[in-house]
Cytoplasm protein
Amino acid sequence: MSQRTVRVALLLCDTPLPAVVAEFGTYLEIYTNWLKTSLASYPDQQVAKGINLIVDGYDVVTAMEYPDLSRLQPGHPEAYDVIMMTGSKHTAHDMSNPFGPRLIDFIRKIGTSPETGHIRLIGVCFGHQIIALAMGGECVPGKNGWEAGVYRNQFVGEGRYWWTGEVEGQGGSDCVYIEQMHRDYVSRPPPNFSILLKTDRYANHSMVLLHPTSTPDQPIAHMLTVQGHPEFTPQIVNHMLDVRIPGGVFSPEEGKESRRRAGGKDGSGGEGYGRVGWAIWRVMLQEIPRS
């Protein structure tokens, strides 16, 4: 069986809490484990067994590290296929964060340059919001309060196609369940982006931008975002609540509701390591023509 290497440049937009690091490791370790675990249960095992995943982390907050531009060019022997952004405690629309404007500028350049059109961009939570801002959308503080724990994400438009394909799961045919930890939301998507998911509180939980080579018969994603945290487990969410509830980030009512939701329906959390993780893998494995 031939091997296919998938290289991911992971832009680390935060550092996990000490309790999270002690149990689950850094965000580089958490994201790598999430991608490997969801790949291990990927429905098409013939494809999954042929994948060699390489994830390199870049601290864009403190060290302001970014991938070398040479590795973003087609033809480089170790060229990246995907740029993925993590979540963050920082506020995407607060431009007083010194790393924020540089990150937005980087994503805009990569997302609009023909030379890097072969690279897929994937944003998780804060990353979802940064992609929106970089490409001309709007992110604002949510007026409907926090979403923390597992929430039902309903399909919008082509949401079912991108987030489930033909895979069955606990979410049924009209939704998926994803761990959340956010209040800010993307109130206006960028031009040409389509909204794919929503919750009862917020109308934009996922977006897709099609690649120029995409066709109706063979849709190809250039950028895919998700407001939730498919990489989170109930334990990670509870560690965060252990700090944020006493710190006054949540009201007592919000804290109680978030605790109740952390484990989802059966205590195992959302579908991040199943259907949602598989959907992200399907997008990462789509072939984009290289110029």
Remarks:
- Residues 245 and 255 are 6 Å apart (CA to CA).
- The first helix runs from residue 18 to 24.
- The radius of gyration is 18 Å.
- Residues 4-285 form a domain with the Rossmann fold fold (CATH 3.40.50.880).
